[in-house]
Amino acid sequence: MQHTSTVxxxxxxxxxxxxxxxxxxxxxxxxxxxxxxxxxxxPCPTEDELKYTYTGYCSDNARLYGRDVxxxxxxxxxxxxxxxxxxxxxxxxxxxxxxxxxxxxxxxASKAQKLSVERVKTxxxxxxxxxxxxxxVHRTKSECVVxxxxxxxxxxxxxxx
Length: 161
Known about the structure:
Helix content is 34%, strand content 32%. Strand 3 and strand 4 form a beta hairpin. The chain has a three-stranded antiparallel β-sheet, with no helix packed on it. The chain is globular, with a radius of gyration of 23 Å. By secondary structure, it is α+β, with helices and mostly antiparallel strands. The protein contains five helices and nine strands.
């Protein structure tokens, strides 16, 4: 009987050690991608589309409920905020809505400035901020920790388990 419990304890120890090793093996290092390799995957909205959505987004009903008063102050303000298109980097691992008011060459030339991690309920966002207010985000269910937040001198990165 004692031999059986010893064998069980040894098997349990092996399983536990194996699961701990498997967790460490699945840790993923994430670095902010360079925008020079990012691609625009959605077209910019047309002027007519922006006017149409401005009417819906900034309607009188929306204003009554205090929804985004600054954006709706004028069509130019609205266009500044909502004239965006979806961009992706690293095969879709990172994505974000970048301004169509900035030419693609300027976007691609923007350098990473900082990396941060934000946890909301069960979702983690690894956020890469770039020059000129550009931002790409990686979303994951994993827990992530910032290893290097400053991108100015070296590669900023996070580790996700």
